[in-house]
Amino acid sequence: MRTELTAGLLAAQASTSPKFLYDALGSKLFEAICELPEYYPTRTEAAIFDTHLYDMARAIGKGSTLIDLGAGNCAKAARMFPLLQPLQYVPVDISVDFLRSAVDGLRQQFPQIRMTGIGMDFSAEMALPAAVRRDKRLFFYPGSSIGNFTPEAAADMLDRMRAACQGDGGLLIGVDLVKDKAVLDAAYDDGLGVTAAFNLNLLRHLNALLGADFDVRDWRHVAFYNEAASRIEMHLEARSDVTVRWTDGERRFGRGERIHTENSYKYTRQGFLQLLERAGFGAIRTWTDEKGWFLVCHARAM
Question: Which of 48, 167, 260, 299 has the most other CB atoms within 10 Å of its CB?
Answer without folding.
Answer: 299
